[in-house]
Design brief:
two-stranded antiparallel ribbon, alpha/beta, 18 helices, 5-stranded mixed beta sheet
């Protein structure tokens, strides 16, 4: 203990300087927080489960860059039995408050007396001026002493840091060698928005940088770094190696990393677990019972779209006319008003209801759609038509295979990159008739129209 760390109070007794206020949570709460994050929970929900405030959970998430520190990750081994646990420290604090001796406490805790003596001396609370022992403060002292900070290679190796920064954020150059600055984009600490300019840079990915180093510096072992170390230098606060604004040069432009479970579970808020495709009745899969439909939109130039409905048993195709609404394309539009491109939630709901209600009730049992925002009013659609709406999992178009195949056939008439709004409702009816009049191998070379007409007669 140095003189600088020791001071005297009025009575002349030695008084230890406190290292500060203990943290708001122990390592156990932080481990629980990151376990919940790994399961896909939000920062606020994970904080509540870990018994800390949502504000603290959000701060933990941002300071760590969206990924757990190595000593708090789920794969990190738990503390070994050679160290006192928090439960043992709580019992030690109770026994010490009862003024029991060190050897008696050690006997009750089944520990060596020197372990108890060292714990009372090293991890005592000193803010009160004495050596009061509190379990929470002692655990905080132990966690601080257990840290093994490792200096980041990028922070001490100037040449490596310059190489990484140049490959991430270097200027784009013309064939003549002249630097092209690109759009002027200021850093605001957030990800770039939609339909906004992005910063121009060489924009190598961390993986490309890490694997290029051995080729550019084959004889210099110090010019080596892993792509994960580059990501941590960008995202984790306190590493001090790379500036946070360089995340704008990454392909995604994210200012925080996204846990895998959260990305897998991402979907629209209006899609609840009971509406997923896995909850569909078994009769839908074998195509034995008619009346189950699959739907989607095919998009064209200028936000134009055409809706498609395909019956799974007969392969009958119905096309939805979705013309632009009044005011589409104007510079000034109503704030928070409906989507004027013609394929908003209300327009798609009305178009499906208009077409599907012309069929008998037995032939409108269910509808399977992807998780597009155009189906946000699926509850109203179910009430109006009697269709039970189900949703595919995110990024799983094969779960609507019949509809995807039909959309491919429709591209023969409506190619990608063309304006679909020029086609009138009669044009769509003609194309649907052409598809429904084609003989299909899976229907015994009968046409969808013939099979569907037979169903209507039997119904």
């Amino acid at each position: 203990m140095t003189k600088r760390q020791r001071r005297l109070d009025r009575s002349g007794r030695a008084k230890l300087r406190s290292p500060g206020r203990p943290t708001i949570a122990r390592r156990a709460e932080q481990r629980q927080f990151w376990r919940e994050i790994a399961s896909g929970r939000s920062s606020e929900d994970a904080a509540i489960v870990a018994r800390v405030s949502p504000v603290v959970g959000t701060r933990w998430f941002r300071e760590a860059g969206g990924m757990p520190p190595s000593h708090l990750a789920a794969s990190a081994p738990p503390p070994s039995g050679r160290y006192l646990s928090f439960a043992e420290r709580e019992e030690l604090a109770i026994l010490h408050a009862q003024e029991l001796g060190v050897r008696e406490i050690a006997r009750r805790l089944a520990r060596d007396p020197s372990t108890i003596s060292r714990e009372l001396r090293r991890n005592a609370a000193t803010r009160s001026g004495g050596f009061a022992y509190r379990a929470t403060t002692a655990q905080w002292h132990a966690d601080r002493a257990a840290r093994r900070p490792k200096v980041a290679r990028l922070s001490v190796h100037a040449g490596l840091r310059a190489y990484v920064q140049n490959r991430l954020a270097g200027l784009v150059t013309a064939p003549s060698g002249e630097a092209i600055p690109g759009p002027a984009v200021s850093w605001n600490g957030r990800r770039h928005g939609r339909r906004k300019d992005r910063r121009w840079a060489t924009a190598w990915s961390p993986e490309q940088i890490a694997h290029r180093l051995p080729l550019d510096f084959p004889n210099d072992p110090l010019m080596r770094i892993s792509h994960e170390a580059i990501y941590q230098a960008l995202y984790v606060q306190g590493r001090g190696a790379l500036r946070r604004e360089l995340t704008a040069c990454l392909r995604t432009g994210r200012t925080l990393r996204v846990p895998q479970a959260r990305a897998r579970g991402r979907g629209k808020a209006f899609v609840t677990p009971d509406l997923l495709i896995s909850e569909r009745p078994p009769e839908v899969a074998d195509r034995a019972v008619p009346g189950h439909w699959e739907g989607d939109l095919i998009l064209g130039l200028g936000s134009s779209a055409i809706g498609t409905l395909v019956e799974r048993t007969t392969r009958l195709t119905l096309l939805l006319h979705l013309p632009p609404m009044a005011g589409h394309g104007l510079a000034v539009r109503e704030k928070n008003g409906p989507a004027l491109a013609g394929h908003g939630a209300a327009a798609v709901r009305d178009a499906i209801a208009h077409v599907i209600t012309t069929l008998p009730e037995q032939l409108r049992r269910s509808l399977t759609w992807d998780q597009g925002a155009e189906m946000a009013q699926h509850v109203r659609l179910s009430i109006d038509t009697g269709l039970r709406v189900y949703f595919c999992h995110p990024q799983s178009p094969w779960q609507r295979g019949t509809n995807e195949n039909t959309n491919g056939l429709l591209r023969q008439y409506f190619p990608r990159g063309t304006d679909l709004s020029v086609h009138a409702a009669d044009d769509l009816a003609a194309v649907a008739l052409a598809l429904n009049s084609r003989p299909r191998k899976n229907l015994g070379w009968r046409t969808p129209a013939e099979v569907f007409d037979q169903l209507l007669r039997s119904t």
